[in-house]
User: What shape does this take?
Amino acid sequence: MKKVISLVMAFVMMMAIMVPAFAVDLHITQTGAQAGQSTVQTDISKITEGVYTITYPSIIDIEWGEEGTATYSVEASMKVGKKLTVSVADTTTQTLTGKLAATDITDTLDYTISGDTTAEYTGGMNETESLTFTVADWNKTVSEYSGYVTFTASVSDM
Amino acid sequence: MKKVISIVLSLVMMMAIMVPAFAETTYQSVSQQGENTADVVTSTKDINGNDAYSYTVTFPATISVAWNDKSAQPATYKVESQLLIGDSLKISVSPVNNGKMTATGTDKTLTYTLAGGGEVVFPEVNEAGTTAPDVKDGTNATVTIADFSGVPVAAYTGTVTYSVTYVPAP
Assistant: This one.
């Protein structure tokens, strides 16, 4: 029995001299692809209703005895829910009829505006509109008669 | 027999008192005058045992374009890195859905074009603010909306993707 115990103790003590082996960390290299995203965004903080440009002639010529024609163009980008209205009228009467006066005589010519005298625009539009100027009676002294028309732009809710 | 066992046990006990030698520090002894050197060596791991190499790529979260502004807007990314010898970063920028931008309330779209997004290879070390190899605080990528006509005014949005690939040394 003593011999058995001695041998067991000897074996245990032999195990005690084993040097512990520490684990080695694996070196992992980060590879592969990564991605991130950015948002591209239009800034409309300074726009309240939309942006538009109305281009119209500075002078509308009417040949004596003929109808006069003119065009105007509208390029508009309106906010969703908004509409642009462009209208044309005689500056003095604020209607589609008016008078052309001459500087050297008292005669006047009555005229009427017809065609695209009122037009509406929503969203994004780029349009060219046409106007016709008709003099009712040319039986007047031939001279240079003139008047004014007004182009008005207004924005309202749809 | 007892004497033999006793001798064997004694030898075993002598071996048991040997302390395992951990290989953290090796000391040298100097026994004569003269210059003696010791090597100073850096590890590729930090004080917490983590890999010490790192990189950061910074890019804008939002690229804002004022309505009707047709000039190029910066979409610049910046790189800061300390990589292992021979490693590199490949970075590119690309439009999503061909640059199409959409908005709520309309089926109309805008389109942006991206310039300067081609793949660029960055070396191991790039100080903060690097926008190209050996270039700091420059502009590398831009976004342009060339045409705002024919669409209602709205907040249109699109997406740009920044791709980063870490390439280990061959």
Remarks:
- Strands of chain A lie at 32-43, 50-55, 68-78, 82-90, 97-102, 108-115, 118-122, 124-135, 145-146, 149-157.
- Residues 88 and 133 of chain A are 12 Å apart (CA to CA).
- Confidence is low (pLDDT under 50) at residues 19-30 of chain A.
